[in-house]
Amino acid sequence: MKQRTLKEECQNERRKFKKIGQKYYHIENNEKLSWFSALQRCAEWGGHLVHLKSDEEWNLVKEKLEMGYRYWVDLNDLQTDNTFMSATTGEEAKFVKWHSGEPGPDNNEHCVELGRFDGFDMNDFYCFEKKNFICESSNEREELGECAGMQEDLWLKYQKSTGHSRELIMII
To answer: What is the pTM of this model?
Structure first.
């Protein structure tokens, strides 16, 4: 059996993405991961956690989601409580679709999910909770360099604010 290179493995994983509207998405319904691990898995597949930008995009994506499932998106407030940033762009979220009463008052809920409520509104939740996730790519055939790993700056900010080590996070 021939061993595949890292690039070949990445390109194989890219085939999971399906076009919805103008972008490519992979909606992971089988594997549940923490927010950090989902961020890394999407990068390994040549994409990133979904970064929803409009009602139109949100409606297109939510039509494909499984009722009763909960999905990680790229938003978090790990750096500053209640300032939700995109892990994809590094900018403050311009589009949010919060469920009534969200984001909640719990200061330990830092990562954003879809699906806790009917209609797939957004909810902030505990980052280490294992959930399904949605990966996004703007181009299915985008040329891949080496597979991306975890976004180092996000890890460093999280480690600095919590004292958690990468080894602990990867085990969870």
So the answer is: 0.76
